[in-house]
Amino acid sequence: MKIWSSEHVLEHPWEMVTTAAMQKYPNPMNPRVVGVDVLDRHVDPSRKLHSHRLLSTEWGLPSIVKSTNISFTNMVSVDERLTYKQHPQDPEKTVLTQEAIITVKAVSLSSYLEGLMASSISSNANKGREAMEWVIHKLNTKIEDLAVSARGSIRTPMAAAAALVEKK
Amino acid sequence: MNSVGEACTDMKREYDQCFNRWFAEKFLKGDGSGDPCTDLFKRYQQCVQVSLAPDPPRRLLQPALFSAIPPKLPGCLSI
């Protein structure tokens, strides 16, 4: 097992970040994600919202892998957790903590390969953060457009964000 | 965004619109009133379960590693 972790500050309030996280896909940085489904969702007695989601991805395996029927899912698994928390010093910012556990079954992975995987996770993490910025920018731009065209309509920014979702 | 089941995409989008609106306008503002999307969710869910039934993704059958490790940060969103 290898643990990789990283911390990053997003210059946006927590409510905006979580709204964007719920609508992260599709985005141009993650073209491999071709489907997102909610398998379960509920609010628990402590008012915590739980969402169990399935992301469908397409990686386009090279033909040699297809022909030899190698399944890497049997050998390597990566569990990743992203946590968004309001910045302790600045309520207009959000701290993103990312953690990954890499588990390899039966095969002893060289430290070189472990390093490669950590590199890959790290670079994907950067793409993920770019994706969040892209989604937030899109939501903010449309909020401004709505505000300009609203003409006296009294709406909070978040309600406007919800309204633009309905327009999609 | 599409659903894993092609037939479910429209139901998914309808549900997503309802959820995103409730999430931003009610849940994030601390409004504890009920979830208005339950019927839409049930319909969408039934479709997804049918789509996944013949070949459920292997990982769904295994508990996620992180579910055994409670997050140390209360009041935050863990995805």
UniProtKB/TrEMBL annotation, chain A:
A single Gene Ontology CC term: mitochondrial intermembrane space
Coiled-coil region list: none
PRELI/MSF1 domain: residues covered: 1-168
Pfam families xrefs: PRELI (PF04707)
Superkingdom of origin: Eukaryota
Name under which the protein is recorded: PRELI domain containing protein 3B-like
Species for this entry: Cricetulus griseus (Chinese hamster)
TrEMBL record, chain B:
Keyword Disulfide bond: yes
Catalytic activity: a 1,2-diacyl-sn-glycero-3-phosphate(in) = a 1,2-diacyl-sn-glycero-3-phosphate(out)
PROSITE patterns the UniProt entry points to: CHCH
GO molecular function: phosphatidic acid transfer activity
Keywords associated with the record: Disulfide bond
GO BP annotations listed: phospholipid translocation
Tagged with keyword Disulfide bond: yes
Cellular component terms (Gene Ontology): cytosol; mitochondrial intermembrane space; nucleus
Domain of life of the organism encoding this protein: Eukaryota
Record family assignment: Belongs to the TRIAP1/MDM35 family.
Name of the protein: TP53-regulated inhibitor of apoptosis 1
